[in-house]
Design goal:
The chain contains 4 helices and 6 strands; from the N terminus they run H-H-H-E-E-E-E-E-H-E. The protein is α/β, with parallel strands linked by helices and about 180 residues long. The protein has 2 domains: about 45 residues, no CATH class; about 100 residues, RlpA-like domain (Barwin-like endoglucanases, Beta Barrel), CATH 2.40.40.10. It has a 6-stranded mixed beta barrel with strand order 1-5-2-4-3-6. The chain is globular, with a radius of gyration of 20 Å. This is D-galactarate dehydratase.
Length: about 180
């Protein structure tokens, strides 16, 4: 009887693994670029091709290999952070509100991937809860304007948004 239970549990576990693999494949989880090395990251969600060329004001070098803390992953300089949080020099044009979640923490710089824009441009995000704002590169993201957005770790830290919760932000074009 004990062997039957063990075999049943093993069969159930293997079946669950197969379903997880099928779901990962269906939703693009655990993908790796063909040229990438190392283990597959289960949190990669198929954003390949959404790479943007950030302006010097919002660009940053990639984090060091093995970085695991927000401090180590945020490679923006103190000067960039000060410039990004300074009041805008020119008037801004409001685009709307969006709910943001943390984007890839290993993708450096100050950026917001959002369906509120159709082309890459400079913008500003404001966290109404804190009043804090940051200059960002706005990167188009497929989906309806009501869909959520993904924000860089550095930008989320500047506007004092929770890294684990969803935060509603105001988005504007700058300049």
């Amino acid at each position: 009887m004990k062997h039957v239970l063990i075999l049943g549990a093993l069969a159930l576990a293997l079946g669950a693994c197969a379903q997880v693999g099928a779901m990962s494949e269906r939703f693009g989880l655990g993908q790796r670029a063909p040229e990438a090395e190392g283990p597959i990251d289960p949190f990669v969600t198929g954003d390949a091709g959404e790479e943007a060329t950030l302006a010097p004001e919002t660009a940053a070098p990639p984090p060091p290999t093995g970085a695991r803390t927000a401090e180590a992953l945020d490679t923006t300089t103190a000067e960039q952070r000060a410039a990004a949080t300074a009041a805008p020099a020119a008037p801004t044009k409001a685009l709307g509100k969006t709910v943001v979640s943390l984007g890839s923490p290993t993708e450096p710089g100050l950026w917001l991937k959002t369906p509120l824009v159709s082309e890459e441009s400079q913008g500003r995000v404001t966290n109404p809860a804190t009043g804090r704002s940051s200059l960002v590169t706005l990167i188009p993201l497929d989906g309806p304007a009501t869909a959520g957005s993904r924000m860089s770790l550095a930008a989320m830290r500047l506007i004092e948004a929770s890294l684990t919760d969803l935060t509603e932000v105001e988005v504007a074009l700058e300049g």
